[in-house]
Amino acid sequence: MMQTYTIGQLGRLTDTKVETVRYYERIGLLPHPPRSAGNYRVYDGAHLARLGFIRRARELGFPLDQVRELLEMSGQEARSCEQVDELVQAHVTDIERRIHDLQTLRQELMQLLAQCQHGKIAECLIIEALQPRVTG
């Protein structure tokens, strides 16, 4: 007999909120499950495996469109994994860009902190730096 799961069980097993499971169904990442006689969703092992795949890809920072691509490619087992490699390399490049941006942001904030004279808010260089610059 095949193991089945309620949406709550599926969520607990994959550490996914029920609302997120429903969302993945709505956007087509997770196939809609059949319904029981009582009109409850009935998930099986394939749903569990697919949701686990989605969750892991999301943990690794893949956006939903790339998760969709990875899911499509995972079903084509005889195909070369070159396209997967390219997708992952693009993701790594994006992560490296974001790391650089965060390091730049950190450096800018550290410079602001270094200028702090611990005076009053009216003289605060950090607050002054955050004020919009009006041109005109």
From TrEMBL:
HTH merR-type domain residues: 4-73
CDD domains: HTH_CadR-PbrR-like
Pfam families: MerR, MerR-DNA-bind
Keywords linked to the UniProt accession: DNA-binding, Repressor, Transcription, Transcription regulation
Protein name in the entry: Helix-turn-helix domain-containing protein
